[in-house]
Amino acid sequence: MALEDAKTQVDQAFTRESLRGLSFENAFGGATSFLRRRYSKDLAGVDLAVTGISFDQAVTHRPGTRFGPRAIREASTLQAFDAPYGWGYDPLAVLDVVDYGDMAFDYANTREVPGRIEAHVGGILDAGAAPITLGGDHSITLPILRAVAARRGPVALIQFDAHSDTWVDDDPDRIDHGTFLYKAIREGVVDPAASVAVGIRTDNPDTMGVTILDAPMVHREGVGAVLARIRAVVGDRPVYVTFDIDALDPAFAPGTGTPVWGGLASWQAAALLRGLAGVDLIGGDVVEVSPPYDTTGATAIAGAHVALELIALFGWTRR
């Protein structure tokens, strides 16, 4: 296939015959599934299911991450023509990937949402696929981790973020984007001794044993040193990656609810994700993309690139 196929290809989200391969329909038209993957609720034989959780509830400053999945999908139409640059292989040629669509929920019944997320992701896992989730605020990661840990045991976590998200929260009824990791560790679904938070640049009195590789360290010591530390902590454990888009500096991703200056540049995030090649990725998410605060679309573009890098990471050991 080539760009000339745009003359005949359209709506590949519904019309494509194979779960593999690139797509060449016009970026500005057609149904905007992630990377023009086929929309499907049938996970038989599927390696990866991309799914959206369009939920935000009580972010610190600027709401709107419920629109993140839609914006990330639209941005991903720019990436559907080529394999991700620099990987040396095409993950869409070796993996069966579908867009599983968004999770349904009652917006007026907020307390029901975490349970629905856990069941939604659990269904993906039980079908034999791995989840790549587009959020949504960072509260969605807690029930995802519950679903993964219920099937794989306590999770080794690599978290890209401006905030460690381990503020104290012992109220089981609270749904908070800033305390997902506190609860995950308290519940035993995340193993803090095998977990790393990268890009942190806000104070927190207790990071609960998670190794903190803050943004100044990344800037000072470089990508190679940070990757060595990550690998030393995670080891050969199966790992889940959660990427809060505010790990990036607001210059690169202004469309987020909690922007903090001094963050990662997009090239640093790309190099760090690429440098994780070989880890046993069991799932991942990109959260906190809030498109109403970025009319350029740069934040959604960054989110789409993160999601594609996660797909490439997953496929690296399966190529």
From TrEMBL:
Record-level Gene Ontology MF annotations: agmatinase activity; metal ion binding
UniProt xrefs under Gene3D superfamilies: Ureohydrolase domain
EC code: 3.5.3.11
Keywords of the record: Hydrolase, Manganese, Metal-binding
Co-factor remark: Binds 2 manganese ions per subunit.
Any coiled-coil regions, as ranges: none
Cofactor requirements of the protein: Mn(2+)
Binding site for Mn(2+): 138, 161, 163, 165, 244, 246
GO terms (BP aspect): putrescine biosynthetic process from arginine, via agmatine
Family indicated by similarity: Belongs to the arginase family. Agmatinase subfamily.
Protein name: Agmatinase
